[in-house]
Amino acid sequence: MLSATLKLLLREVSQIARRGRNSLLSLAQERRTALRLDRLADRLAGMGVKIDILRKRMNEGRLDEPLDADASLREALRGLKEDIRTVRCQLSALSGPRSSPRLQRAFARLAAIAEKTYAAADKLQWEIEAHEQMGDAQQASAATRLSA
Fold first, then answer.
1. pLDDT in tens, 88-119
2. Would you say 33 and 110 are in contact if contact means Cβ atoms under 8 Å apart?
3. Runs of H (alpha helix) within 61-100
4. d(C-alpha 26, C-alpha 51), whole Å
5. Which positions ≥6 away from 141 have C-beta within 8 Å?
6. Which of 46, 65, 66, 144 is the most exposed place for a label (fewest CB within 10 A)?
7. 41 Cβ partners below 8 Å, 6+ apart?
8. CA-CA-CA-CA torsion for 14, 18, 20, 25, nearest 10 degrees?
């Protein structure tokens, strides 16, 4: 009888220890995921800063060469926007009320930065188009004056 009770007690202790270990592993995994999300948000924020610097230089006319003569920048911006769109879709699928507060903060931060960077990339894309069209119109009017 004592042996059966002892076995049950040991089984209970073993299950509690296993649950505690699994809980700690789960917390560590959530922490690593939150850190990865934070690093991704930092990289996106860095891209947003670079985009803003480029927009500022373009608007001030401080560019030494044509901004996007071969359209590679616009293509890169299109790709960035597509990647951000994918990240935002994945975030909306993953985030939820069952996530830890730390993970929810990381999701919210990444979503906000992704939205801001997407808007900056979109705005730069439109401004490049407008800048290019304005340059084409100026070249056409200069050519008309020269031929007259």
1. 887 777 766 677 788 888 888 988 999 999 99
2. no
3. 72-94
4. 37
5. none
6. 65
7. 106, 109, 110, 113, 114
8. 160
User: Amino acid identity, residue 67?
Assistant: L
Tens of pLDDT, residue by residue over 45-87, are 999 999 998 888 888 877 666 666 777 888 888 888 888 888 8
Q: By the 8 A CB rule, do 115 and 81 touch? A: no
* Structure token pair of residue 32: 């690593």
**Taking Cα atoms as reference points, which of 39, 46, 35, 45 lies closest to residue 113?**
45
Q: Closest Cα to residue 78, out of 41, 121, 48?
A: 121
pTM of the predicted model, to two decimals? 0.70
Among the listed residues 31, 46, 54, the one whose alpha carbon sits nearest the alpha carbon of residue 103:
31
Residues, the chain, total? 148
Closest CA to 30 of 88, 82, 105, 86: 105
What pLDDT sits at residue 138? 60
The torsion angles phi and psi of 66, rounded to 5 degrees, stand at -55, 140
Q: What is the dihedral of CA 100, 103, 105, 107, to 10 degrees?
A: -130
Q: Give the separation between CA 140 and CA 143, rounded to whole angstroms.
A: 5
